[in-house]
What does this fold into?
Amino acid sequence: MAKESSYTVGDIKVMEGLDAVRMRPGMYIGSTGQRGLHHILWEIVDNAIDEAANGYANEVTVTIHKDDSVMVTDNGRGIPVGIHEKMKVSGVEVVFTQLHAGGKFENTSYEYSGGLHGVGASVVNALSRWLSVEVYTDNRAYRMEFSSEADRKGHIASGKPKYPLTEIGRTRKQGTVVSFLPDDRVFETISMNYDTVMRRLRELAYLNRGVRILFTDERERGERRSVEFKYDGGLSDFVSYLNQDKTPAYVPPVHFSGSSGGIMVEFAFQHNDGYNDSIFSYVNNIPTTEGGTHETGFKAAFTKVMNDYCRRQGILKDKDAPLSGEDFREGMTAVLTLKMKSIQFEGQTKTKLGNTEARTAVEAVVTEKLTPYLENLKNAEVANQIAEKAVKAAKVREATRKAKATAREKNKLENAPLVGKLSSCTGRNAAINELFIVEGDSAGGSAKQGRDRKFQAILPLRGKPLNVEKKRLDQVLQNDEFRSIITALGTGIGEDFDLGSLKYNKVIILSDADQDGAHIRAILLTFFYRYMKELINDGHVYIGLSPLYRVSKGDKHIYCYDDAELKKATAEIGKGYSIQRYKGLGEMNPEQLWETTLNPQNRALVRVLIEDAADVEHKVTVLMGDKVQPRKEYIFENADFNKAPSVYEQMAGKM
It folds into this structure.
C-alpha cells in the first residue's frame, strides 16, 4: 500500500538572507572542522590583501583575541559607505548580508582579486556569533554590528544587522577593521591554529612585496605572540627561504617580472644540489597546488630557452638531441605568480588554473626576460651551472629510462616484483578497492587473514624502504619495495604518472605506533610526495590508525587509540580490568586487526592532504634531507622533552 503524504507549496522552504549558509556551511567553506574555520579567516584576509595587491594598501594586521575572536585591519580605501541604489542600504550592509554582492564582479574597483567575488564577507558574517566592521574613509569613521541570535523557538537569524551603518566620529585613519567570533554552534572548534595562520600570512607577505603583515595571538597564558612579515625581495626572498636548508647552486635567485596580454607574470628560481624540482604557483595570491596552464607555460618556455642557449654555446651539438625539461629542472625551486582577470579554475577547489591565455602570457614573459639574461656575460656562471647540471641529469635520465623499461618488462611478466608479496583483492572495481601497505611480514600475515578479500589488498613491506629525498630516481627504481608499490598501484611514476590507471581508490599506510613505524610512514609519504604527488592531491593516500591499548573485563573489550581514550575506558569499565598494550601490529590476531583497523565501520583513517605546499616542501627538506643541523634544530624546537609518561606507563609503575 502506497504511503499517503501531502506535498503543497507550504512544504517549500525559502532560505532568507544568509540562512542557507548556516544550513549547508560545507557548500561555502568546505567543512566545519579546522579547515573551514580557517577558511572564514582567509576570506577576510583576502579582502584586505586585495587592497594591497591593487596598490591601495601596504599594511595588514591580524589579531586573535583571548576569546578566540579575530580582528583583521587594513589601511586601504575602506568599504564604500554610501547608500546602494538598488538595495537602499549602505554598501557595508550589502557586502556583509548579500551572498552575491561585492566590488569584484567587474574590473573597475579591483583589477585583480582572489576572494570569493562578494560571497566571502557575507559567509563569514553568517557563520559568526557576532561580527563588527569599522570603516575609515574621507576623514570619517563608521561602525556597524551584526549578530546571529536565536529566537524563542530556537531559530537563528543569521548575521542580522543590530543597527544601520552609523558615523561614530572624525578620523585621520584610512581603511577597514573587521572583527568576528566564529560560531561554536557551527564549528567543531573555534580555536584557530597559530602555525596555520602564521604560515599563510608569511606566504602572502612573500607574494606581495613590501606589504607589512603583523600577526598577534593574545591567547597564550598571560603572553602575546607577535610576528611581523615584510619582504622587499618578494619572490626572490621566498625562493631563498624555500632553499634555506639546501645547498644553492648560485645566489641570489633569478627573479623577473613582466606582462603580456593584460596578464602580469612574476617568477623567481634557484637550483640546488637536490634531484627534485619544486614549482609553487599562485594566481591572484591563490595557491594553485595542482598547477595548470601557467605552470605548463613556464616549463615549456624554460626548456626551450635553455636548449637554445646550450646550442648557441656549443654545449649541445647539432646532432645532439635537445635536453628534456626534467633535465633543466633537476634541483630547481621556483615560484610563479600571476595577476589576471576572469580566472578559470578547473573544478571547485581553486587549485588548478585552466585559462589557456595564461600559458601564452607566461611563455612570452619567460622567453623575453630569460633569453637576454643568459646572454649577458655577467650571468655566464649561473647559466653554465644550470646547463652543466642538466647535462649530468640527462645521463642519469638515460639510466632511469632503462630502469623504467626494465620495470615495465617485469610488470608484463605477470607482475614479477609482486610474486609472493601482494595479496590482491578479488574485486576489480578500482573505485572501492583499497591497498594496505603494511609494515612487516607478521602484521602482513594477520592483515591478509583478517581483511575482506573482495575489496582489500595487502602489500607487506620487507624491511625499511630507502629515503628517496637522498636518492636519484634511477636508485629509487632499483629498490624492491618501491618497485612493488609502483607495480601494485599501476600508475607509473614521475612524469609518466597516470592517475587514471590507479587500481585502488584508497592507499592506506599501516605501520606500528612507534619510532620505526613513524619513520616508515615518513619515508612512504616522502615517496608519494616526490613521485606521485597527484595521488595525494586527489585524496587517495591515508594513514591507518591502530589501537595502542585494549581494556578488558570479562567479555567486554574497549580499544583505545591514545592515553585520553584509555583513561576514559578504565573509568567506564570499572575495577578489575586488564590492559593489553600493543607494541606492534603483529601482536594482533586477524580478528582483532579486522575489528579495529581494517573494518570500514570501525576503523580510523587520516587522509593525507597538502594544504600549504611551501610549508610541506620545507618540512620534507628539513626532516628527510641531507643536512643534519636543520633537523636537529627542528627537533629541539618542536619535541616535547618534558612530556608526562603515558597512563599505561604510570599504571605499570604502580604495579
Remarks:
- The domain at 235-397 is CATH 3.30.230.10 (Ribosomal Protein S5; domain 2).
- The chain has three domains: 19-229, 235-397, 417-546+605-621.
- The radius of gyration is 28 Å.
